[in-house]
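Re: weekly structure request thread

Next one in the queue (392 aa):
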Amino acid sequence: MPDGAAFGFEVLARDPHGRARTARLATPHGTIPTPAFVFCATKAAIKGVTPTQMRDAGTDIILANTYHLMIRPGAERVARFGGLHRFMGWDGPMLTDSGGFQIFSMGHGGVADEIKGRRRPAGESALLRVGEDGAEFRSYADGAKLFLSPEGAIQVQRQLGADLIVVLDECTPYHVDRDYTAQSMALTHRWGDRCLAEFRRGDDGRQALYGIVQGGVYPDLRREAAAYTADRPFFGTALGGSLGSSTDQMRAVVSDCMPYVHPDRPVHLLGIGGVGDILAGVAQGIDTFDCVSPTRVARHGWAVVKGAPNERINLRNARFRDDPGPIDETCGCHTCAGFARGYLHHLIKAEELLAITLVAIHNVFTMNRLMREIRAAIHAGTLDELAGAWLA
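Done, posted below.
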């Protein structure tokens, strides 16, 4: 841990036409220029890409998943290695989520594609009980009963050692009614106070805590939750929970929150990674985003390309079979500098592991390029023009 390091958030410039802003987000492991994208190293690894390759592609910060790591290899084991930074060989800023999303969405069947090889009968919920004390659930690794309290979520994240950590919340799906959503939000707030108390008991200056804005798709609940986080001494604000069933609804939910969050704290939008959604979020004042999307779509042959229809191209398509050009002629990544679309098409069809790495490196570089261009556009007051260039 660098000596004398501290947390801070300093706004540098604001878009004259809206809420967008650039800032410096300081952590003990480095300073992040925002708006920024946070790449998901769910199980303490970016799929197909090494930490050095992530750095070479311009990455400033990554995220690891508390839920998965408390199951395997266990937070205690990670702590014995000196924390996640040493465990996985990443020396930059890190964020961990609380695990709440995975725990509660399992109860609603929403993260089947996130949990590989789970050993429970189809249709059986892994979420066993939710109460004032916390949540009881089954491990997808061996079926063992596990329990996570608000205090436990902070303790586990302390053992993992990320710079930025998040309170435990109950994550409800979008289809639950307003009464349940209100009760769930109130529970999340009580848990948030307990997380904050536990965090302050053991605070040694090495971590900073984000509160979460819940409230589902209900504007009044979102405003109440935003006011709750603003009223507590959290370092940052995360917008979580259900953001609706459509892009328009998600953007409306974010719009409902932003006038009421604390104006001088970093704001993170959980689980959003589309180019259009990022541009829309930035315009509403979001500082950081995270999503598995860039590396996930790479594993299926999709490359994110500036100005492409639907934000990406499918390198599996036969039209790329004899294409000698790079994925994107305007891209400066390692993949575009040395490999043709036709070669990448071959690797994908041959199921070579190198395909995953090369396309993922391009997608990581492209997302970081997007964020760099967004920051420059905010300074120049040209965010709308940039959005037009990126979105077909």
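Residues 8-38+63-290 form a domain with the TIM Barrel fold (CATH 3.20.20.105). The chain is about 40% helix and 20% strand.
Next request, please.
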